[in-house]
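Data card: per-record layout.
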Amino acid sequence: GKNLIEKRGIGYYINRTPTIMTQHLPSAHIRLEKEGYNNTIGPVKRVQLPTHLAEKLKLIGTRQVVHRVQVSGELVEGSEKPLQIAYRYYMLPVSDDKLHRMQNDSTYDPMWNDEDLMTELLSHDEVTPRQATEGEGDILGLPEFTPISHVFETISDANGKLLMVQEVILSPRTTLIFDFPFVNKPKS
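The structure for this 188-residue chain is written out next.
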């Protein structure tokens, strides 16, 4: 009833929506070929960086960040089908005006929409499978004990200064595709 499984011939298959990784993991609605949506859940506000992230990043002391939670996905016959939850922590400077705009416009993101931000960014991603928590399952419309992909991503400037950290929870309907340029034989 949640369109996660589809019968094809004599077998059953998980319905999948491709998620293409390029330089960062954008909201699901940006990647979709069909119409998508993006909603901010709760307030966009300044908070202390959570301890588990500060420890993972080996950051000493407390750090104020702007926190935003978004759910995005596809629209199927007028119904929202969530594909991901993104917990974003912005380390870059965010003015009160930008914070207010982020709260009122779910498509606005200072990481990608501000022209004064440099274009050469470094992304580090870690993908781990795990079971969805009860809350994640409720938001993504998943049955209990459903596996999800957890993406931990940091984005830094060319000098290594941390600009954003995000944890993205991907529905099992999402196939993660990595598509990065690389050099096979670096010049010596």
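Known properties of this structure: The chain has five helices and ten strands. The mean pLDDT is 82.

See the next section for split statistics.
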